[in-house]
Amino acid sequence: MRDVFTDTTTELLTEDPRTALVLADISAAAFAPAAARHPERVLNVGIREQLMVGVAGGLALTGLRPIVHSYAPFLVERAYEQLKLDLDHQDATAVLVGVGASYDRAAAGRTHLSPADVSLIDTLHGWTVHVPGHPAEVPALLRDAVAGDGSAYLRLSVLQNDRPHGGDGSLTVVRDAGPGAPLLVAVGPVLDAALAAVADLPVTVAYTHRPRPFDTVGLRALAGTEVILVEPYLVGTSSRVVSAALVDRPHRLLALGVGREDLRRYGSPEDHNRWHELDSVGLRRSVDAFLTGALLAAGR
């Protein structure tokens, strides 16, 4: 995904003179050719992430469309105050592109982990959040975000599904178990694990790469009584949105995602998926317990 982002951004810088790119050393080497061609619109501020966002806000106020890029914990967590003040409060907009996701660089330690990034973005007003599940989904999402006029966050990962699923982010049914079946909503790169987890269960599976704004219309059309939400970041991030969308009907919600406990471990992204029970085995265990509870509650 990161390579596709680099290629697409390089193309955009050539195609659209309104596009700018602001870096804080991360990926500077990859964008060196673009910086040589467009030195006035490719700016590397050094290891100063707060300044990076402030510069992007200034560029936006001059009429440019800045893309701001770094690892998720540096881009969102470290520079959160600048996102709040230099972008939102100034009514300036930008396209943030984060890499590292929740624990892609777990081998680098806790400084490079950011399972709470989407939750933090969710405290800001009116942002679009895309969590692509495959590299082939990235170019269209990035181009649409840059062509728009609102603020957006693209969350890129080394984890991916076997194949892309296009669309505008509306819930897409990838497995239909029929009317009234439990609904599992998978966000981004957790889709394949979720499909494997419920392969022999009567569960409808829907996919989205756009948790914000969440497709509440699609959710209401698909949801029965049981809803399972699987997100590759902090557990429960979208629970309030799902619950609000279904507030007028009886429902049970199981939210699965990255746990809040600090594991204090290194390992690989796949290790962390397993430790947070976001692999197919862990997801199946959680889904079985949830659906068994639903049957008991119904007296079956």
UniProtKB/TrEMBL annotation:
<dbReference type="GO" id="GO:0000287">
    <property type="term" value="F:magnesium ion binding"/>
</dbReference>
<dbReference type="InterPro" id="IPR029061">
    <property type="entry name" value="THDP-binding"/>
</dbReference>
<dbReference type="InterPro" id="IPR005475">
    <property type="entry name" value="Transketolase-like_Pyr-bd"/>
</dbReference>
<dbReference type="InterPro" id="IPR009014">
    <property type="entry name" value="Transketo_C/PFOR_II"/>
</dbReference>
<dbReference type="InterPro" id="IPR051157">
    <property type="entry name" value="PDH/Transketolase"/>
</dbReference>
<dbReference type="Pfam" id="PF02779">
    <property type="entry name" value="Transket_pyr"/>
</dbReference>
<protein>
    <submittedName>
        <fullName>Transketolase</fullName>
    </submittedName>
</protein>
<feature type="domain" description="Transketolase-like pyrimidine-binding">
    <location>
        <begin position="1"/>
        <end position="164"/>
    </location>
</feature>
